[in-house]
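Subject: Sanity check before I submit

Could someone independently write out the structure tokens for this chain? I want to compare against mine line by line before I put it in a report. The sequence has 116 residues.
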Amino acid sequence: MAASEEPCREYLRRHRIPELLQRLSALLLYHRPDNPREFLIQALESVKAGRRAQGEFPDLMDEGNLGAMFGLLDVVGRGHISATQFREALKTLGLSTEGLQVGDDACITLDVFKEE
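---
Independent answer below. Compare away.
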């Protein structure tokens, strides 16, 4: 890796640009708007407003979708999933698991899954 690449990688990591781009791409593919550029502008404005606590962050999934996803992970109906399943689901949704404080032996319920 060239010496000039490391500051670039650090900049992207610090500002969580890969996660943002992944989430925006997921939103775009999920909603498939007729005007993708306008949709992305609105999504970024929602993120900006959400950071100022003036609005909600754009959601890829609603509660029904999250419940269905949880049901797919909890195939035997135990009412909880493993921490490993939880982390993988977050990654699949394009969400960061950095700083997630869930022990490896934790049982994640539907309520916790939706909250996170």
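---
OP: Matches mine. For the report I'm noting this point. The chain has two domains: 4-52, 63-115.
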